[in-house]
Amino acid sequence: MEKVFGCRGMARPIITLLTDFGLKDSYVAEMKAVILSICPEAALVNLSHQVEPFNILEGAYLLARAAPWFPKGTVHLAVIDPGVGGERKPLIVEAEKGLLVGPDNGLLIPAARRLGGIRKVLAIKASGKLFPERFTETFHGRDIFAPAAAYLAKGVKPERLGIEVDEYVDAAFPEACLKGGKVSGQIVYVDRFGNLVTNIDRRLLEALEAKPGSLLKVKAEGRKAFTVKLVKSYSEVEVGSLLALIGSWGTLELSANQDSASKILKLKAGQTLSVERQR
Fold it and tell me: Could you tell me which CATH class the domain 177-277 is placed in?
């Protein structure tokens, strides 16, 4: 049976958008205008346009986190593209449960894996009747990626838009590990509430025999060690107090009840830390 996406696979096609463009300028609106000109029936969903500028790993994290919640056949358009106009390829990634469009810098690959795995990767050929005769070398989001996403949502096969390639860039998320009774990990994301999201999953905490009510000793890069209680919900501690819990993506988060753990602890994404259960 032929694999179908877009209008052929759903009553109304869905295109998600993730960028580091922010909301001050017209960039996002221009991309949406192009999409709607080609596929006016598309439902456009903003994942985020507040990714830290040029932060490919942050974008890859958010895309991989959100994409699996969408219906099968959704087209995911992501543009964090510091190499725009250079030698990096514009890609379509066909995953088992959806399609991803964006630059070849690792941004798309973690999400594709979480969408059931990669079926094929294609380099977009921005030529012919489906793309503008001329396009800028500074805004591929509007001139290449947006048309590609729109045509995919209309049911155009990826092979009409590009050629299959074997080599592409992967964004490798750092992995936490257990050694000597301690888990070494990293803060991978800070949300708007100041929650410090780590890459330490539930399995590693269980290996420490940590459970709700346990005290965790945390030593973060550039900071003295501190102790925090592992709880199930924010309300289990006083307002303003620090806590640790398993967040909605199944990993350890350092938080504060109705406050910013990032500001209190003066920590940010990319910093390493170690965690052990206080005996």
Answer: mainly beta
